[in-house]
Amino acid sequence: MRLTTKGRYAVTAMLDLAYHSQINPVTLTDIAARQTISLSYLEQLFARLRRANLVKGIRGPGGGYTLSGMAQDINIADIIAAVDEPIDATKCGGEANCQKNQACLTHDLWMGLSEQIRDYLKGITLAQLLEKHHVKEVANRQDQEAQKVIEIHRHTELKHNLNDLL
Q: What percent of the chain is modeled with pLDDT above 90?
């Protein structure tokens, strides 16, 4: 079983959101800067997460996204499912048609693995991940690095604006 970029990015973005939206809504631009994920890709993911009622958008100045519920109520399996990422170790997508339209010899083995992975991910919530010391350290480092990038962009933009005025 391989989790694609879509599933990994969705979990990463949701963890970033859970960490940073405890006080104010978080913009996708901020998440993109911290996690080095394309803004347009995040927009696609958040459209799906919004439809799954995992996040809610807040419009206007100071707007952005927040979790729709409590971090302890959102598990990783739900996030992955929301972005249409299958948690499946079978070759047949769980259809039992892997060998001449019938189950293969190892079908039950791979189905069992899929269930174990799904159960494992259902047992982990965003709140549990936020409690890990390493997550806090990484989030703080990402904040500092993103702030540097934002300052460089602002400085460059200001320089271009001044040149235009002169």
A: 58
Q: How far apart are the first and last CA of the chain?
A: 58
19 and 146 Cβ atoms separated by less than 8 Å: no
Ordered by start, the domain boundaries in the chain are 5-87+125-165
d(CA 62, CA 85): 31
Q: Are 6 and 45 in contact (CB under 8 A)?
A: yes
> pLDDT band for position 25 (50/70/90)?
very high
As a whole number of angstroms, the distance between CA 126 and CA 70 comes to: 9
Both tokens of residue 31? 């998440």
Query: Which structure tokens are listed for 141?
Result: 């480092």
Looking from the CA of 18 toward its CB, the CA atoms found within 13 Å total: 25
Cα angle 33-36-41, degrees, rounded to a multiple of 5: 95
Protein fold of 5-87+125-165: Arc Repressor Mutant, subunit A (1.10.10)
CB 28 within 8 A of CB 46: yes
Asked whether residue 150 carries a pLDDT value surpassing 80, the answer given is: no
pTM for the whole structure: 0.81
DSSP state of 73: G
